[in-house]
Amino acid sequence: MIATIRLGRRPRRARYDRGAAERYWGEERPRLGDELRIVLSAGEPPWVNAAYHTWETTLLERHLRPRRGQCILDVACGLGRIAAPLARAGATVVGVDNALAMVHAAAAKTACVTGSKRRRLPRDTGPAVRSAFVHAFSSSLPFVDASFHAVICLGLFEHIPPWLQAHTLREMLRVARRGGAIYLMLLNNRSLLMQAGYDNRHRRARQLPNGYYCGLPDRDAIVATLRRSGARVTALGSNAHYAILRHALRDRSLGPAETRRAARAFADAAMRDLSEPGQGQFGEIYADHFFYHIVRR
Ligand SMILES: C[S@@+](CC[C@H](N)C(=O)[O-])C[C@H]1O[C@@H](n2cnc3c(N)ncnc32)[C@H](O)[C@@H]1O
Question: Which DSSP state fits 201?
Answer without folding.
Answer: T
